[in-house]
Amino acid sequence: MTRSTTATEAFEPEHAARLARDLSEKGAIRSPEWRRVFARVPRHLFVSSFVVRTPEGTVAYDEQTPGWLETIYSDATLITRFSAEGLAISSSTEPSLMALMLEHLQVQDGMKVLEVGTGTGYNAALLSERLGSALVTSIDVDGALVDRARGALEAAGYRPALAAVDGARGYPNNAPYQRILATCGLGRIPVSWLDQLDEGGLILANVGLGMALLRKGSDGHARGRLLPEAAGFMRLRSSSAPGVPTVSEVLSVTGGGPERVRVVEKVAGLDDHASSEFLLSLLLPYGLRVVQHRQEGQVHGVLDGASGSWMRVEVDHQGRTTVSERGDRHLWATYTALLSDWEEAGRPEIGRYGLTVSPDGEHHLWLDHPQNTNTPLDQAETTG
Questions:
Q1: Partner residues linked to 377 by β-bridges
Q2: How far is CA 355 from CA 36, 203, 280, 297, 369, in A?
Q3: pLDDT digits (tens, 9 = 90+) for 53-110
Q4: CB burial class (10 A; 0-12, 13-18, 19+) of residue 371?
Q5: Contact 240, 372 (CB under 8 A)
Q6: Is 175 exposed, middle or buried (0-12, 13-18, 19+ CB in 10 A)?
Q7: How far apart are the first and last CA of the chain?
Q8: Contact, 123 vs 47, CB < 8 A?
């Protein structure tokens, strides 16, 4: 009897080489070192089965699915695990974004790197190929994910330090690090990461919908700009951070009775969905906005998972806005002040903003220069 060939057995090094070439042509890979790394690491060893989201819906893949290898070695995010509620909680991020982040991390030979968010282990493999396994530490709160990643890494020939711990606490056992990379979404940069980072070291992390590249100074503060590329990773799961509300929770809570109601004319900046969402993600690190489109206009429901405060913003087709609020935090006043600053500054792009994180965890948003910190974010709940 003739045995059929599995997709794994059909793998050829040219699959990874083609991916590296494609990423270089896109501009995601910009250096020969990272092109060599992507061409050598076998991504298929880290994702035996996965789901891909397409405009037509979700498609599930395993080794028996036609196009399995081709999809793995394409520039696609591969979702590998879901929560009981059906939310994606682990994935192999699209390689172009991974490559951009690794390039921005500016690693050099001999540097120690902490990766927060092991996931499938593929990114830890890329770092191990570039620096050597002994210089790479990767942590994740999910022990089952770490165990699977360890098996895949060993099969690929890499043995970085892995640990199943709360990512918000870092990993002091192998500190200090010269680079910290978060492959998960954050509300705020944890103080523990600053403590475990060498002076002059870099942190690259997805804060809200911005990618922050921060360098630690001699004063213990970490400062840096947000990258021009916006991103939204799956959230860091930590017992030390408030949970982000679900869509159903936002809809349920913001549909309730308010304590305060006001009617205002057209709000500058609210019409730019991408920028207003970006600013809100920084203002409310544990908040969520849900926008409903109705015949009479839009309804924006915002719930802050940290305080429980909420607002419901109903905007008609003429821009007339009815704001309903409940809770101790007056979200509308703070948010519109931030939008007003953005409007008066000429609607700047994300890349003109930056963050400063102090040793006690305060986060300050600035525009163009660290001294320009007169934004409502300074007065918001900023300790992480």
A1: none
A2: 33, 12, 15, 34, 10
A3: 877 777 888 888 888 889 899 988 888 776 665 566 667 788 999 999 999 999 999 9
A4: exposed
A5: no
A6: middle
A7: 62
A8: no
- Catalytic residue of the set 24, 48, 90, 133: 90
What gap in Å lies between CA 371 and CA 229, rounded to an integer?
23
> Tokens in use for 142?
């999910």
Q: Among 319, 277, 278, 279, which Cα is nearest to 298's? A: 319
**How is 348-377 classified by DSSP, letter by letter?**
--GGGEEEEE-TT--EEEEESSTT---SGG
Query: What letter represents residue 369's amino acid?
Result: H
CA–CA separation, 329 and 311 (whole Å): 10
Contact 208, 281 (CB under 8 A): yes
Amino acid identity at 243: G
Is residue 90 among the annotated active site residues?
yes
Whether this model's pTM surpasses 0.85? yes
3-state SS record for 214-282 = EEECCCCCEEEEECCCCCCCCECCCCCCCCCCCHHHHHHHHCCCCCEEEEECCCCCCCCHHHHHHHHHH
Measured between alpha carbons, how far is 31 from 8 in angstroms, rounded to an integer?
29
Q: Is the preceding omega at residue 42 within 30 degrees of 0, hence cis?
A: no
What confidence tens digit (pLDDT) does each residue in 190-226 have?
Answer: 999 999 999 999 999 988 888 999 999 999 999 999 9
Nearest partner of 45 among 157, 165, 211, 185, judged by Cα: 157
